[in-house]
From TrEMBL:
It comes from the Bacteria. SUPFAM superfamilies: Actin-like ATPase domain (SSF53067). This is N-acetylglucosamine kinase. It catalyses: N-acetyl-D-glucosamine + ATP = N-acetyl-D-glucosamine 6-phosphate + ADP + H(+). The keyword ATP-binding applies. It is an enzyme of class 2 (transferase). It comes from Rhizobium aethiopicum.
Length: 305
């Protein structure tokens, strides 16, 4: 048995996994952001409540492990940012610890138990507040040892002109320090940013989507530009990885007509042509971070035995 954790900025969620078909979520606790000792104690308390010693701990976390140094970048939880977290937790908990990025865990969950079943190469895309992704090939997460594979949201790639008729798009500054990243336009905040640029209107993404679905002219223009901007980098990602399915998670994945439009646009731009949906809603709608971390932990246990 392993225990998996989904570590977020506000909450820590736990789960017990005995097999791929036996993954049971536990409750949640508030995340101690500033106190590492309290962070460890929260994990220790959840493990103790199970009443059984796990063989391994697997964490899904909104951060990236450097594959060279094994140090974690996790800006929203200061007490673990910059730590060699796996080694530190192993010393504290006396258990093997595996850590993976939350988008990677999402991709793993979709490849193993979701929309990616039966596909050799699965690219899991996140269209939430921002943009993320993870890559699974032949059932294995490419970032098993940490790393940045799948991060299609970053890099100066966004087109300077988009939509029909074409309109100039600024190279928006990104939180990663670059300009013109997919992350600046592809998530919910990006959709809002585009609407402000095109129409000088401040609307929440939910309002823009609602107006688009009702055929409102300005929202329709914004979504047209959005699809044009996002489809090309996603098609390029598919060409590079060879993915044959792209499950999508995050808030915007709940808008089925938007995903359908994106899928149609992407399939006109990929080198390999698909006569079926390629960009699809995720199927692991409940706790994909926990599921993905659990699958990674179970695979690590199997490899060690």
């Amino acid at each position: 048995m392993i225990i998996s954790f989904d570590i977020g900025g506000s909450a820590i969620k736990g789960g017990i996994a005995r097999s791929e078909t036996d993954i049971v979520p536990l409750g949640r606790r508030a995340t101690p952001k500033e106190d590492f000792a309290a962070f460890v104690e929260t994990l220790r308390d959840i493990i103790a409540e199970i009443g059984e010693q796990p063989s391994r701990v697997a964490l899904s976390i909104a951060g990236v492990v450097d594959p060279d140094t094994q140090r974690l970048t996790c800006a929203n939880i200061p007490c673990i940012h910059g730590r060699t977290l796996a080694a530190d937790l192993e010393a504290e908990l006396a258990l093997p610890v595996l850590i993976a990025n939350d988008a990677d865990c999402f991709a793993m969950a979709e490849a193993g138990l979701g929309a990616g079943r039966g596909h050799r190469i699965v690219f899991g895309a996140i269209l939430g507040t921002g943009v993320g992704g993870g890559l699974v090939a032949d059932g294995r997460l490419v970032n098993e040892a940490g790393g940045f594979a799948g991060e299609w949201g970053h890099g100066p790639i966004i087109a300077s002109v988009a939509g029909n008729p074409p309109v100039a798009i600024p190279a928006y500054a990104c939180g990663c320090g670059q300009k013109g990243c997919v992350d600046t336009v592809g998530g919910a905040r990006g959709l809002e940013r585009l609407h402000k640029t095109l129409h000088d209107l401040d609307l929440a993404s939910e309002e823009i989507i609602d107006q688009w679905r009702r055929g409102e002219e300005k929202a329709t223009r914004t979504v047209d530009v959005y699809i044009d901007l996002v489809a090309s980098p996603l098609a390029l990602t598919i060409n590079i990885t060879g993915a044959t399915i792209v499950p999508v998670g995050g808030g915007l994945s709940n808008v089925a007509p938007l995903l359908a439009e994106l899928d149609r646009a992407v399939r006109t731009r990929t080198l390999r042509k698909f006569d079926r949906p390629l960009v699809v809603p995720s199927e692991c709608r409940i706790e994909p971070g926990l599921i993905g971390a659990a699958l990674l932990g179970l695979k690590a246990n199997a490899a060690a035995s």
